[in-house]
What does this fold into?
Amino acid sequence: MLSRVPMTTCTALIVAAGRGSRFGGPLPKQYALLAGRAVLRHTLEAYRSAPQITGLSVVIAEGDEPHYLAAVAGLDLPRPVMGGASRQQSVLNGLEALADRPPDLVAIHDAARPFIRPVDINACLEAASAGGIDGAVPGVRLSDTIKRTGGDGAIVDTIPRSNLWRAQTPQIFRYTSLLEAHRAAAALGQSEATALTDDAAVAERAGLKVVMVEGSEDNRKITTAEDLRITMETRTAFGFDVHGFGAGNAVMLGGIAIPHTQTLAGHSDADVALHALTDAVLGTIGAGDIGKHFPPSDPQWRGASSDRFLRHAVELLMERGGRIVHLDLTLVCEAPKIGPHRDAMVASIAHIAGIDPDRVSVKATTTEKLGFTGRREGIAAQAVATVEIPRR
It folds into this structure.
């Protein structure tokens, strides 16, 4: 499970002002469709699913406002920052826009890297938060043999690869240090400044200490139209659970307590809704069922809040680079009445899963007084989880 980083705030600055000349097509690559939604939208939702990120800001190009608004429709985001003539200027504009309420850390991320995993974001945050460190960059060690050639194409020498990496984003830094480094770089001549090809290079020039962190091959950058075809697959899985009634005065359903003449009996808090949802999410990644991860024979789970179970399943999905598209829950019972509590349950489930409420559906039905639910002996729940996950 993801650990929490002991820093107060971290804003993700998503750089979406590039034109992507190698991509081709009618739109910049950050607005091209990936699994039916803009690449930028995927990137933003990856960061919205990372609990360590406390703010989001997007830098876009002048004239891209209609594409941007279409890509982020329904997301509660601040107004975008207008970029500059170069990536460095765009990042500086984004950093300056945060100066009124500066975060402790800032994560600079390419909009065209939509497959970033929360576990990799967290690893960079932990490294950048360490004492004596100014920033951290994820990357992949080079595995191919590297050759240097002369002007005629003849091999001159072989470069040792033991300390060579392919740098990725997010590149995470202490905000104040990176802002000062970018301001200093902006004062250089244009040719020298543009030679600094990423934020780590800007930080290195300023004498900041930046460390490499093991990243993931999944965190690839969309560069050509072909990159969009090696992308995500959609998976759907089903979950089911049932609990009988016992003595009590409330039932836990979807993470909220609903007053009732009885309670649901079980080893944990017996939240039948969250249990079914947990099994559905686990099913999308072939990770077994809730009993495998939280065995009822283990006393530490006695009376445990079931939000921990669903959150764990979602974190396992995110560690695979996946995201939840939709959660659909049906409760089967004669009582209590679900309708008055439906909105609260939707909000609770969305919060636990780290998704927008419009990606959660809660329904209820009865069995027309047939069977154990019809006899008011308990409650059953059926859940369907739909996710997207990188194709392997």
About this structure: The CA atoms of residues 98 and 295 lie 46 Å apart. Residues 10-229 form a domain with the Spore Coat Polysaccharide Biosynthesis Protein SpsA; Chain A fold (CATH 3.90.550.10). The chain has a mean pLDDT of 90.
